[in-house]
Specification:
With 90 residues, the chain is mainly beta. Strand 5 (58-72) and strand 6 form a beta hairpin. Residues 1-11 and 13-20 have low confidence and may be disordered. The strands form two sheets. Strands 3, 4, 5, 6 and 7 form a five-stranded antiparallel sheet that branches. It has a two-stranded antiparallel ribbon with strand order 1-2. It has strands at 11-14, 17-20, 29-38, 42-55, 58-72, 78-82, 85-87.
Length: 90
């Protein structure tokens, strides 16, 4: 899945109300790449992203991470098994 294909919720709630995400032209900004687990068969990796949201004269950040789960084949190469998106505030 490419970043341009990520499907976001239609609306997010904030302290100042509800704003839509589908109308935001910005692409996600990569923030970090972290291997959270690895053993001889499995690797779990988190890729963190932010999208800047301008609500009135305030800047808000929509934060999410992609959790990539891989299995290692006999040669040690990684095979992607799943790649769900997790949000922090929606």
């Amino acid at each position: 899945m490419e970043l341009g294909e990520i499907s976001f919720p239609d609306r997010c709630h904030s302290r100042s109300g509800i704003y839509t995400l589908r109308s935001i032209p910005q692409k996600p900004v990569p923030l970090g790449n972290l291997d959270v687990f690895e053993d001889d068969r499995t690797v779990i990796n988190w890729l963190f992203f932010a999208i800047p949201l301008f609500v009135g004269d305030s800047l808000r950040l929509f934060l999410f991470f992609e959790e990539n789960s891989f299995l290692k084949d006999d040669a040690g190469d990684l095979v992607l098994v799943s790649s769900p998106i997790h949000t922090f505030h929606c």
